[in-house]
Amino acid sequence: MSQLIGLINYGIAGNIHSIKKAIEKAGGTVKIVHSKEELESVEKIVIPGVGSFKDAMKELENAGLLEALKDAMGTKPTLGICLGMQILSSLGFEYGKTAGLNVINAEVKPMLVNAKVPHMGFNAIKIIKPNRLLFGLENEEFYFMHSYEVVNYTDITALTDYAGHQFVSAIQKDNLYGVQFHPEKSRDAGIQLFKNFIAL
């Protein structure tokens, strides 16, 4: 039996349909979630994200999903993708200071690197704390596109090097997972990551 995966639709996601297609290709069943009621009917959660931290939090609030999502993440395996990982943090500094979902003790800050920002294209991840989501993906490259990074010291599962700067590319805390890259744009490696998520 395939568990129902809820893909949060909160206005700014942008990449929601490519994520849905990639999860289905990996063998998952997806329901696009617009409301608290729909959120209650799914077993797992994926939080997509393209755009700004501030807008993402505002859209979740406007959709009436903010508190419901926090509650649901307490028990349901959850995967945050790119901005979806960033908003798991306590604070974001994009366009001013914005409170995040506060489920990971982290802050989201601009990438300060002596190279072109946004960091864009395929890059390797270095797994420093193996988990089931990243199983079998040790030597793979994933597609990144971001100008901000998650600063965290306790929940890091993978790091990535960009122009001599190491940033957090994956996190995990209990049943919560986050990846800074876009698995839906990462070819076979991304499909395998979604397979791992489905199997959790």
UniProtKB/TrEMBL annotation:
It holds the Pfam family GATase. Residues 14-197 form the Glutamine amidotransferase domain. Keywords: Amino-acid biosynthesis, Cytoplasm, Glutamine amidotransferase, Histidine biosynthesis, Hydrolase, Lyase. One of its GO terms (biological process) is L-histidine biosynthetic process. The active site is at C82, H182, E184. One of its GO terms (molecular function) is glutaminase activity. One of its GO terms (cellular component) is cytoplasm. It is found in: Cytoplasm. Its main location: cytoplasm. Its EC number is 4.3.2.10, 3.5.1.2. Pathway: Amino-acid biosynthesis; L-histidine biosynthesis; L-histidine from 5-phospho-alpha-D-ribose 1-diphosphate: step 5/9. It catalyses: L-glutamine + H2O = L-glutamate + NH4(+); 5-[(5-phospho-1-deoxy-D-ribulos-1-ylimino)methylamino]-1-(5-phospho-beta-D-ribosyl)imidazole-4-carboxamide + L-glutamine = D-erythro-1-(imidazol-4-yl)glycerol 3-phosphate + 5-amino-1-(5-phospho-beta-D-ribosyl)imidazole-4-carboxamide + L-glutamate + H(+). InterPro entries: Class_I_gatase-like, GATASE, Imidazole-glycPsynth_HisH. Heterodimer of HisH and HisF. IGPS catalyzes the conversion of PRFAR and glutamine to IGP, AICAR and glutamate. The HisH subunit catalyzes the hydrolysis of glutamine to glutamate and ammonia as part of the synthesis of IGP and AICAR. The resulting ammonia molecule is channeled to the active site of HisF. This is Imidazole glycerol phosphate synthase subunit HisH. The lineage of its organism: Bacteria, Pseudomonadati, Campylobacterota, Epsilonproteobacteria, Campylobacterales. The gene is hisH.
